[in-house]
Amino acid sequence: MATVTNWIDHLNKPAEEVVGAVYPGAGSTETLLVILGIVIWIGWHVITNNSESDELSRLAKKRHGANDHKSNITDW
Asked: What's the domain range around 32?
């Protein structure tokens, strides 16, 4: 592996002379991290949707009235 002493000269070389990526892990690592991030993002939304739907259906079964919050009912 070659040592780079001057980054400006190294980056200004034609593409044929630059061997490999400028930084380690270019391509493969980032792709995996992006895929992992998207999976976590979608999973978060699915879990949140399920938990909010369960809570709303539980509250809907109680059939609170419009003024029940004035009576200090818990789990309103």
From this structure: 27-59
